[in-house]
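Tokens as discussed.
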């Protein structure tokens, strides 16, 4: 099961990022790496491999050719497992210039794969696990495998300038003046027929404060 999740998650993080990033980069030529982008890349690389009930099951490097095309200054691609219930999720976290990082979304890539979209992206709120009760905004979508087992996959994704996670209507224009941009995507298989009850939202609630800490934002909320 996890091999499918890993392969599909890598495809999400790479194929559309490459396509969207190439188009935007060719259009804007704004691929200059500045200090903020470099620092953000170094910081997210410090994301802990274990926190709360979560621990790293698998870790993958971003393909060097893809990283070079995106001018990506840092990335984290891991499968985390939950010690309490055994659930697993895949996270892809990228840092780099706002142009290539902002212009894609996963539903196009999934629709061309072995999954069909069952619930298109909808805006949802994720409540953090720390004392800050201000919700973060994400898109959530659910998909159904075209194979016999018809497994359900839930995906969350959003962008951040290092503060709140958000899902603006036009990320490319909303973030065009940002010194750097983060993109996060979390995917998990679920057998629950209610797509709103999944391990991804629980994982995000625990993960977001950890990202704040490595970005030095723990005192900003």
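Sequence:
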């Amino acid at each position: 099961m996890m091999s499918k999740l890993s392969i599909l998650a890598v495809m999400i993080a790479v194929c559309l990022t490459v396509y969207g990033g190439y188009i935007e980069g060719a259009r804007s030529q704004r691929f200059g790496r500045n200090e903020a982008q470099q620092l953000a890349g170094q910081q997210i690389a410090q994301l802990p491999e274990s926190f709360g009930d979560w621990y790293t099951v698998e870790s993958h490097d971003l393909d060097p050719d893809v990283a070079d095309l995106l001018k990506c200054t840092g990335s984290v691609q891991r499968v985390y497992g939950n010690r309490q219930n055994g659930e697993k999720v895949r996270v892809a976290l990228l840092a780099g210039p706002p142009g290539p990082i902002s212009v894609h979304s996963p539903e196009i890539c999934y629709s061309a794969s072995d999954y069909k979209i069952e619930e298109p992206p909808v805006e949802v709120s994720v409540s953090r696990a720390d004392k800050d009760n201000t919700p973060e905004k994400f898109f959530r979508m659910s998909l159904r495998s075209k194979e016999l087992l018809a497994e359900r996959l839930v995906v969350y994704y959003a962008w951040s300038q290092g503060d709140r996670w958000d899902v603006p209507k036009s990320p490319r224009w909303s973030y065009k003046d940002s010194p750097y941009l983060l993109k996060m995507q979390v995917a998990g298989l679920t057998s629950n027929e209610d797509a709103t009850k999944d391990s991804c939202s629980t994982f995000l609630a625990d993960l977001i404060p950890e990202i704040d800490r490595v970005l030095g934002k723990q005192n900003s909320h």
